[in-house]
Fold this protein.
Amino acid sequence: MSIKGKAYIAGAFEHPTRKAPDKSVAQLHAEVALGALADAGLSKDDVDGYFCAGDAPGTGPLSMLEYMNLKVRHVDSTNIGGSSYIAHVAHAAQAIALGKCNVALITLAGRPRSDGSSTGAAPRRDNPEQPDFLWESLFGMETLNAYAMCAMRHMYEFGTTSEQLAWIKVAASHHAQHNPNAMLRNLVTVDEVLASPVIADPLHRLDSCVVSDGGGALIVTKPEIARSLKRPLVKVMGAGEAVKHQSGGQVDLTYSAAVRSGAIAFEEAGVRPADIKYVSLYDSFTITVLVQLEDLGFCRKGEGGRFVADGNLISGQGRLPFNTDGGGLCNNHPVHRGGMTKVIEAVRQLRGEAHPAVQVPNCDVALAHGTGGLISMRHGGATLIMERE
Amino acid sequence: MSTDAVTALALHNPETNAFWAGLIEGRFLVRRCEDCGEAHWYPRAICPFCSSSRTGWQEASGRGVIYSYSIMRRAKVPYAIAFVSLAEGPTMMTNIVDCDFEALAIGQPVKLAIRRREDGLALPMFTPA
């Protein structure tokens, strides 16, 4: 059984806030939920399935369902970090295909910026009961140096350069200049990325994403309901998920979970990387984008540096436009979890509702991929392929 | 978590406290499976390769090579984090100490350098061989 064509993304909403000291986390979840429902043309009483991850306050979906006063018959709180929400779309499609729900709501929201939490160089708030906790926290492992070691190894094995990584940030800034909500709207050059301070070798400050408050929500429905609404039809074509870890000490930092999740998604969707007109890629750091591009098959392993150089990811210029909202590198990274906004911008592109300056012409097939957790250690990969009908 | 709480966690974890107790006495242990023969990291009671419960501690050579590393420059005191591939097989996260950060390189041979904290806990770190 496949989810291909069994569900549609009928509503998508990104919270415009980037700093919300005057709102609670639960309130932000409810605001994005109502935003996505309004976008779809549905009401809260239509929702019969709810999906959330670790950013939702309370035990799984319980507190948020009570807060929003939703009465659902299907819940899923799969938590694979920032990739969760991409997997949630697939899980919602599965539930819809099995008749477990008809209108699924997925929410993400939080306010790490207002709360002054992790900037990537602060100790991670892991659970001490995690079996890996001592073996990493005692050595000063933080988000930044975990990704930096991945970049360092990539450079060693394949000759990837800081200039090539910088092109990823440059492309994101080209897109962010058109997004009035983006935190960083200034165009940056390769030289400016390289001139920014090195935080954890070889990653510079401008190789890193922003920290922001906010969130987003999605509505996934069955085909009959999607066709009854007034929005353009965005069909779920295929999805894949995988978790990669350190394999008992057989560490290989050159690839991510996208190798497996991407292959599964492409097979289910029945398309190839060459068919993808627009791609949303998790961009916690520039190296994250480069590794995912290789792993998803947009170029061969080791050739990501050459692939991203010279503006190849810039809409209107390059072969593969990416993150046309400015992504996590320039726009926002709500709750340090970028998967939600990756799906939202892909939906905008497929609907033809991206900013005209970055809209990809004839954008009929798009892919969103997330890497949640730490790419050098444990992380979830979730891939989603969507088609405009 | 406070330093003391982390130390208590290390010394009282029933599965791995022998590792930390051994290191305090100067012995660097890895966990090896008596059935499939493979050493793994981090140490577990159950072999992550063949699922055997017949695993035991083995004193390691303390020799390895740097698989990858990064200098954390934004810290109050910059430090080198690394993955070191041990001569016994597995690759572990650690710090490289007593070194010129600018001279570190992937593939560089390193040797064990046990670091003792004020609260008595000893940490398995490495230094260029």
User: Anything to note?
Assistant: Chain B is about 15% helix and 40% strand. The first helix of chain B runs from residue 3 to 12. The CA atoms of residues 20 and 114 of chain B lie 11 Å apart.
